[in-house]
Amino acid sequence: MILSPYRSLALVVLAVVSLGAQPPTPPPLMEPQLWPEGDSVRVELPIGFTAEEWEQRGQIASQGRSTDPPPSPVRNLAEWERMQGVLIRYPLGIPVDLVRQFAEDVIVYCLVSTSQQSAAVSQFQAAGVNLDQVEFILGNTDSYWTRDYGPWWVVDGTGDIAVVDFTYNRPRPNDNQAPWKVANFLGSGYYAMDLVHTGGNYMTDAFGISASSDLVYVENPGWTAGEILAEMGTYYGVHTYHVLDDPNNTYIDHIDCWGKFLAPDKVLIRSVPPTHSQYDEIEAVAEYFAGQICAYGTPYRVYRVYTPNDEPYTNSLILNDKIYVPMVPWGGDNNQAAIQAYQDACPGYTIVPVDPPAANPWLSTDALHCRAKGIPDQGYLEIQHLPPPVPWAPDSMALVARIVAHSGWGLIVDSIRVVWKTERMDQLRFQVGESVGNDSFAVALPAVPVTTDIHYLWEAADSSGRHERLPLAGEFVVEAAGVLTPGDVTMDGEFTIADVLAVFDGLAGTSWEGYQIDLADVNQDGAVTLLDGMLLLTQLSQETEP
Q: How far is residue 455's CA from residue 428's CA, in Å, rounded to a whole number?
């Protein structure tokens, strides 16, 4: 378990709550929104507590429905894995045009009451939403924060895609029922633990590493940190849980208001100018993650997005090969800078800016990620892969992936391959995988003459018609160690006079392959010149001296 290096305040809060020395200080309380609808009024609850809910917060624990844990081993699915749909709620908290965009790519699962379904259909039709791509899950809800109360997903030990529920951290029984309703609608397995939690305060990497703010401790005062980690391990397969003091100092304390896992080795942290009141705290969490080891065995790559006026850019939604980023009217040039920050951090993804809905605008503490949630492919063609350690010697260590067709249809073994190229190659190459048992496949790439980056991805297909790749967007990039020494221009494994002559021939106009240029550029100034030839001649004379 990983704890924050600056945990003293959170531990004091926990001690006060657990000892009952004084009642907890209420967060800023909010008013419900009232929307006239014909002869009645619809009540929309806020993202925070209302005064009445704060008085009823003792009822939260009674909403739980603990079950036995799922069969182990359990793997918690990450946001960037393959999604067949997205979960929203009607009345909407997102722009209806975004619903139309979602429906172009995935199924839109819409939580809606029976009395509101016809209104939803009418609004969607008017906006041009493809209703063939919309599935209505009927039942009452209290609010539109499907991220906060919606289902978390795992692959359990039997290979099933299942919901593992938590107790929603608001006294809202209709919202708390949503994960069960989704699982029932999809025919998925359903499990639940007693822990009080919320989706906006949770992110995971698909390899057993997760993160939250210390709100998870505050809202579970009867649990120790070790007990919480054990519960997360049993129900979600979490072995490392980064629990950090929230750096934003707001009422919500959700991690998606300041950070986001973008990949197993990438985390995005907001940045602010030194004059911002939370500058030190935000820099501390960025420094913290930079010092932690990710699932790949390397330190996290920490990316930053500039939020000087508390813009909610980290509150984005990853949905297959697209990342939807909330834009705000007060963002100005920072909106475009945020798009660029995502493009730099996530090459290969399509970055989609999303303007706020008129009635329920994005807030610094509540934006797109809070109001929409991916639904995994229930027949997921799963590819799991850890890149090799660097510097990697391709000829001595194969790439290995675990590939499972959860559709129940068989894998098309001949389709399993690695698509790859180096910096010096103009065309992609393909290497077919070989079964090595336990649903795993290995691909051995040839040695590379010089140290270079290898770009690659995995591909697989099954008989259900699914074709999958990993990563879903972009590619893995790994430094591979070269097997030849500088100067071996003829690439025969030896440095001789023939190599020196080859350099001078090249300078005279002889055509070279890409790697030969690297090997001939002895002083590594980016060009092969007469100086390189003279350096090689000097090197050869030194090596051949008696």
A: 9
